[in-house]
Amino acid sequence: MNNIVILSGSPSENSRTGHVLEYIGRQLEARSCSVTHLSVRDVPHEDLFLGRFDSRPVKNIVEHIENAHGVVVGSPVYKAAYSGVLKALIDFFPQDALEHTPVLPVMTGGSGSHLLAMEYTLKPLLANLKGHNLKGLYFLDSQVNRELALPIVDERLLERTRNQLDYFVDKAGLARHVLAAAGRRQVVLQEAV
């Protein structure tokens, strides 16, 4: 079973990003994945602001990320980039936290003019942590209805979302096998020493 972590970079409790990520989580569970939802809101703001990398909530998120077979990272677009609070949290991650890990970037924004925020800000950040970025999903605010169980109201975007999730699950399965093989090699090397 694939172990998937969904990380929300939205500071808002009732955000479009959060609703999309909840839907993605349900879809991944329907594809036999184990899903853990995490959020920047899980970390006390004092820990983020004061750089307390050793706080228990921060360590918990880092552990989940490092042990995931796949990670979905979502953020609203703020000032042509991901949320600042997401960056504050990711600054605590080890440099190779996403190594061998497929990552599905997800962003929501008010207009199509912010689409490049994913390409120029979020994807490079995730690649810097050695994550293997997938194409990603960008949702206009007008394409998301927070009042519906199925929040994605655009049929073509819904189909593209489902296709991306199928691809993501396949990549996470491959990552799981790579990590298992690497773990077996590490045990053999330790026993040889």
Describe this structure in words.
This protein has 193 residues and is of the alpha/beta class. The chain has 6 helices and 6 strands; from the N terminus they run E-H-E-H-H-E-H-E-H-E-E-H. Strands 1, 2, 3, 4, 5 and 6 form a 6-stranded parallel β-sheet that branches. The longest helix is centred in the last third of the chain and has 38 residues.
Using the alpha-carbon principal axes, give the shape.
globular
Number of helices in the DSSP assignment: 6
Q: Any guess at the CATH architecture?
A: 3-Layer(aba) Sandwich
SSE string: EHEHHEHEHEEH
Number of beta strands = 6
Radius of gyration: 17 Å
Strand content: 15-25%
Features:
about 190 residues, alpha/beta, Rossmann fold, six-stranded parallel sheet, 6 helices, 6 strands, about 15% strand, globular, disordered C terminus
Question: Concise description?
Answer:
This protein has 193 residues and is an alpha/beta fold. It has helices at 16-30, 45-49, 56-66, 84-90, 116-128, 155-192, and strands at 3-8, 34-39, 70-76, 102-109, 132-133, 137-140.
How is the topology of this model organized?
Elements lengths: L2 E6 L7 H15 L3 E6 L5 H5 L6 H11 L3 E7 L7 H7 L11 E8 L6 H13 L3 E2 L3 E4 L14 H38 L1
Parallel strand pairs: 1-2, 1-3, 3-4, 4-5, 4-6
